[in-house]
């Protein structure tokens, strides 16, 4: 069982920056593909970005490409989401998720952290 705990959310003005962290425990962190999802009020959960187990490959939704950077530190069992040039439409609860190599879906989830961007 993998436990994921997010931190770093908060309120920021448009154009500002935030760094989200997600610390993992209870599993072999370095084998998991990690991701950030977000869910805005009244909308479905949405895949924002993923990172490979070794950290060498990332993918981003078009809406955040060029503004968000996803990284990981396997020695610290932690992933980071650097969010720059934030927009009001980035407002959502952000969830960290993990997927084992044999899984087709993300099956470990954090509790979520709220990000609110004011205009």
Q: Which tags fit this structure?
A:
single chain, 119 residues, mainly beta, seven-stranded mixed β-sheet, four-stranded antiparallel β-sheet, 11 strands, 51% strand
Average pLDDT, rounded to a whole number, is 96
Helix content: under 10%
Based on secondary structure, the structural category is mainly beta
How far the N terminus sits from the C terminus, by CA atoms, comes to: 40 Å
- Oligomer type: single chain
User: Please, how many helices?
Assistant: 0
Describe the global form: globular
Rg over C-alpha atoms, rounded to the nearest angstrom: 13 Å
* Poorly predicted spans: none
**How does the major sheet shape up?**
7 strands, mixed
Number of strands: 11
Instruction: Tell me the strand percentage band.
Output: over 45%
Topology pattern, helix = H, strand = E = EEEEEEEEEEE
Please tell me about this protein's structure:
The protein is mainly β and 119 residues long. The strands form two sheets. Strands 2, 4, 5, 6, 9, 10 and 11 form a seven-stranded mixed β-sheet that branches. It has a four-stranded antiparallel β-sheet with strand order 1-3-8-7, with no helix packed on it. The model has no long low-confidence stretch (mean pLDDT 96).
């Amino acid at each position: 069982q993998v436990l994921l705990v997010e931190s770093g959310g908060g309120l920021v003005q448009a154009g500002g920056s935030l760094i989200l962290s997600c610390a993992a425990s209870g599993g072999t962190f370095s084998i998991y593909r990690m991701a950030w999802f977000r869910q805005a009020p009244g909308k479905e959960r949405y895949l924002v970005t993923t990172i490979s187990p070794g950290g060498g490959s990332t993918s981003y939704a078009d809406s955040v490409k060029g503004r968000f950077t996803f990284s990981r530190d396997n020695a610290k069992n932690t992933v980071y989401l650097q969010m720059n040039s934030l927009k009001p439409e980035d407002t959502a609860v952000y969830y960290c998720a993990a997927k084992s190599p044999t899984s087709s879906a993300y099956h470990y989830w954090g509790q979520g952290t709220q990000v609110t961007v004011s205009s």
